[in-house]
Amino acid sequence: MDEQDDFDVLSAIWILASRDKNNLITFEGVKYRLDLKNDYDIAAIIKRRGDLFRRGAPNAEILAWQEEMKKGPILPTYILNIKDSEKRLHAINAINKNNVFRSQFRADKASPVTDLEIVKWGLDHIEHLRTAKSDRNEKRYNRWKDIILIGVAFISLMLSSFLSYKSLQAQISNTQLQVTFLPKQKAYTELLDKMNVCLGVLPFGDQGDKTTIGVKEHDMDSAFLNVRAFLDQNEADQLEKKRTEYHAFLDGETSKQQKGKGNYIYETAFGVGSAQIKEMRVFLDHALFDIK
């Protein structure tokens, strides 16, 4: 599957991890339920999206789940369809912290299924990632058919699960999410988007259009201020240093265009700018979400 198909798989995984009765999801179970190839790298998708998923689980929780599966009739579908008892036991025992994951919003076994509003937020966030990628290769509207299929799956889950029980603890967790996590996520996404926009308009900087570079940099500075509100002083100082370096890069490239005119090579600047944006993403992952 290509990178765009990965976004479809990511959406389906998000729904499973959010609404499945069990908070633990296995890599093998995802591949079986989504009819993916055996070599499809589910682990890579989970590792890349630390904002949505938490890798592994406590050994005690995994062992308890294994004992439940050995005693009871409720099993993951891929294990239930193994008819040979020895092979089935082997599949159960093969589950470990390296091949399971959880939603960030279902950290322990007692966590209820995720509230539908949060599920929708996750799908919207994934769609935003897809759109940002599509903007760079002019394929924004080529994937709506697949999104509709994911939407149908989501609506089906929503209708069947809407009356599920909501505990007091879940309500508290949702309130905490709205107060802390969602604003961070919005500021994080907006800043990286604005940095990408500034990089994307560099080729037009030699045309003398101030709105092309100047206004975009102003928008980016506003996004920097939004992120800064969530950082301590040391992290804010690091952010300011990175902001200054990126401004210097943009100003330098604009100056090169004005001097070089037709001899300006955008591909070189794009590589340097992309590296700075990647460095910023790694920094924010750690500063905002404690992702190592």
Number of helical elements: 12
Query: If you average the pLDDT, what whole number results?
Result: 83
CA distance, first residue to last residue: 28 Å
Kindly state the percentage of residues in helix: 55-70%
Low-confidence stretches: none
The number of domains is: 2
Structural class: mainly alpha
Largest sheet descriptor = 3 strands, antiparallel
Q: In sequence order, what are the helices and strands, one letter per element?
A: HEHHEHHHEHHHHHH
Description:
It is a single chain. With 292 residues, this protein is mainly alpha-helical. It has 2 domains: 161 residues; 114 residues, Four Helix Bundle (Hemerythrin (Met), subunit A), CATH 1.20.120. Helix 1 runs parallel beside helix 8 and helix 10 packs antiparallel against helix 11. The two termini are 28 Å apart.
Brief descriptors of the model:
three-stranded antiparallel β-sheet, 292 residues, mainly alpha, 69% helix, 3% strand, Four Helix Bundle (Hemerythrin (Met), subunit A), 12 helices, 2 domains
Brief overview:
The protein has 292 residues and is mainly alpha-helical. The chain contains 12 helices and 3 strands, in the order αβααβαααβαααααα.
